[in-house]
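1st attempt posting a full record on here, be nice pls
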Amino acid sequence: MRWSIIARIIPAASAGSLLLAACGGGEEATVAPTAAPTVVPTAAAQATATLAPTATARPAPTATPVPPPTTTSAPVSTGQMTIALSGFANFEMVTQQGTTKEYLESMYDYVIGAKENGDLDPATGFVSSWTTDAEGKGFAFKTRPNVLFHNGDTATAKDIIAFIDLARAPGSQWSSAPALRTDIVSMDTPDDNTLNVKLSAASIFWHLRNLSLMGSGGSPSHLLSGKYLAAEGYAGYNKKPIGTGPYKFKSAAVNDNLTVEAVEKHWLYGVPRTETMVFRAVPEETTRLALLRAGDADIIPISRAGLKAAQAAGVQIFEKENSGVGAFRFPSTIRSRPRTCSPRRAIPTASSLTSSSTPAATCRKARKSWRLWWWDGRNSGSKSTASHQTS
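the predicted structure (as tokens):
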């Protein structure tokens, strides 16, 4: 606010008058001339005769107040979200078998990301660009710099090789192991942010199938630390995992619960809104619904059969039209039919694909013949993004 003060000082002046009188009588007498009295003007008369000019004070300068500095508080992760799942599917902290591990989505980034329509997305994964050679046998991947693992180590292209080598190692039971052993001729990293892969045969979908969010189950599509893996081994990594996702491992009880906490700042999602997420194994759907109504769970998956019961309970239900992506596999090729499924958001079960409208919260990954997703926890922190929640 601007303000001003103007002061004016106007002095007042006073004036006086001088009166002269004479008196006489009878015979005129000769009066000796008398010198006229000399009148000395008084100070008042002088003031009357000559008034000093009125002095007008200059206005005080306008003072402009300095506004207080604007303070913007830095975003902080707060609160807790509890997700009651039907189970943990072998409770793997590193995806090995061809089954969905929804609880891993918060801790790991994908090597190659994907959009909601199924297109591969260089903006949301560790790999920021890639090219293929004319024969379709060679891939050159460029990775994103300054991506940090939860222990502070910087991720490099060598970490992708480490996970591929783990998956295809002799004796590996990973579902992708046989194909990885026969597909790959060589891999090399000329620098920390470049990975070259040479294949035994042309396969334009090799990166999609093995390194992306759209890929096969049990594929090395998450970004793991090769250095940490070498130091701890697979068993150690599975016991206390580290990734580059927006949430890091805090604690776990096998097949019962998993707790993850927000990182300070994620390279893509920034500061997660929710500080802590707790995943609980609750096999019975009626129990999950009861937990939701009681406020002991914020998100639950439900089946289409349980949809009416959930609606009757007054909970908020989120669903997405045609949520699902079908992948039809044929020798030497793969054809995808996207259905506007949101990765980490929609969750229809395979049995519910017969309907054109599927509850988002019931999604599962049915590998090989159908690819489906679940999860929207990254940097959301808001219950409004939940698949199912109390009103």
